[in-house]
Amino acid sequence: MSTQAVLETPAAGEAPAIPVREAALEDPVLEARSLVKRYGDIEAVAGLDLSIQPGEVYCLLGPNGAGKTTTIHLFLGFIEPDSGSVRVSGFDVARSALDARRRLAYVPEQVMLYRNLSGLENLQYFAALGGRETLSTERLTEILVDVGLPRPAVGRRVAEYSKGMRQKVGIAIAVAKDAEALLLDEPTSGLDPKASREFSELIETLRGRGVAVLMATHDLFRAKESGTRIGIMRHGRLVTELSTDEIGHADLERIYLDHMHE
Questions:
Q1: Contacts with 230 (C-beta within 8 Å, 6 or more apart), sequence order
Q2: Of 128, 175, 185, 187, which Cα lies nearest the Cα of 4?
Q3: What is the pLDDT of residue 6?
Q4: Are 187 and 219 in contact (CB under 8 A)?
Q5: How far apart are alpha carbons 207 and 75 in whole angstroms?
Q6: Residue 26: what pLDDT?
Q7: Residue 187 pLDDT
Q8: Rounded Cα–Cα distance for residues 48 and 86 (Å)
Q9: Strand locations in 8-109, DSSP E?
């Protein structure tokens, strides 16, 4: 089920990869080099170069079909590039998939959890899948509360949770896994303003812990509020990069619309 993408585990029968890590003085956590992915005659990702350091929140903006989700799936190893490479903490995703996946957490637009289990039981299950089965019930409860899940909800069935509460469980899974990088695909879609703001605060907390975040989104406001850098994609290409410290909301909207009309 798609939930299990949150904590990546090896597919059945998958042979262990020999770790292949490229060291540098300051390795980016997430890196794409000349990345290309084609579907027939369509280049979903066309020569993408991207580098995200620890503690950075990089927001990918663009319309549907721009290549944002494809980029995330390439980092996750869900699909293989036609050329170029993707690396996680120096590990090539194609050659060292398991080592790369151990360092990643993924929160999709719809966090699919086990509805008949509680938030705590879901976290226990996915933490164990990620090799963190030694975490105590008390520690897992603390993580859920720290990410903003009301304490009375920790033991309630997920079937009773709102989307915002399920997203918080997804973030809790990333925290429990001690992930170095967090990949987010439209995480605030469908959230009310309060839940969206709370989500941004969680991302800020993870950034303070040195987690590298790559977030695909349509939400210009939230990208400006949450991101440290913004990349605008169109037709699979990264057409511009911006520092959120150097632009205002109106500037970002103008730049984005200018590129969409080119």
A1: 58, 59, 60, 61, 223, 224, 241, 242, 243, 244, 252
A2: 128
A3: 44
A4: no
A5: 19
A6: 62
A7: 86
A8: 10
A9: 30-39, 42-52, 57-61, 83-88, 91-92, 104-107
Tokens 């993580």 identify what position?
143
The pLDDT value recorded for residue 18 is 38
Check: CB of residue 126 under 8 Å from CB of residue 6.
yes
- The structure tokens listed for 106 are 């993924």
Please tell me the predicted confidence (pLDDT) of residue 10. Answer: 38
Q: Which residues are paired to 52 by β-bridges? A: 30
pLDDT at 111: 86
Confidence (pLDDT) at 188: 83
Give the pLDDT of residue 23: 40
Tell me how far apart the alpha carbons of residues 119 and 44 are, in angstroms, rounded to a whole number. Answer: 36
The upper half-sphere exposure of residue 106, i.e. CA atoms within 13 Å in the direction of its Cβ, equals 24
Neighbour count for residue 177 (Cβ, 10 Å): 23
Look at residue 196 in the predicted model and tell me its pLDDT: 85
Residues of the chain with confidence (pLDDT) below 70: 1-26
DSSP, collapsed to helix, strand or coil, labels residue 28 as coil
Query: Quick one: CA torsion of 169, 174, 176, 179, rounded to 10 degrees?
Result: 180
3-state secondary structure 112-153: CCCCCCEHHHHHHHHHHHCCCCCCCHHHHHHHHHHCCCCHHH
Residue 139: strand pairing partners: none
**pTM for the whole structure:** 0.84
